[in-house]
Amino acid sequence: MDRGYLVAESLLGGAKWTARKTKLAAGGQRLVDPDGWGNVYLPGFRCSSCRILSLRY
Q1: Which among 52, 53, 36, 35 has a CA at the least distance from the CA of 44?
Q2: In angstroms, rounded to a whole number, what is the distance separating the alpha carbons of residues 33 and 54?
Q3: Cys-Cys link to 45, which of 1, 16, 21, 55 (CB 3.0-4.6 A)?
Q4: Are 23 and 13 spatial neighbours (Cβ–Cβ below 8 Å)?
Q5: Distant-in-sequence, close-in-space partners of 9: CB < 8 Å, separation ≥ 6
Q6: C-beta neighbour count of 25 within 10 angstroms
């Protein structure tokens, strides 16, 4: 497993978790607020062979 970050850009909503895809990521539970530049960094691990991410929020 490789240590790293999943980076997302969302100046308005931050990183959210939703059970299904929605337009403009409407709804959902906010996991992480964006920084001053609108970026969200979720620390975690990645397995490049099995393509699984394990993230902390």
Answers
A1: 53
A2: 19
A3: 1
A4: no
A5: 34, 38, 39, 40
A6: 15
- The token duo for 13 is 């909503």
Ordered per-residue pLDDT tens for the chain, 57 residues: 999 988 887 666 777 777 787 776 677 788 888 888 888 888 999 999 999 999 988
Tell me the domain boundaries of the chain: 2-55
Residue in 38, 46, 35 with CA at minimum distance from that of residue 6? 46
Say how far apart CA 1 and CA 17 lie, in whole Å. Answer: 23
Tokens (6 digits) for 36: 């001053």
Residue 31 near residue 17 (C-beta atoms within 8 A)? yes
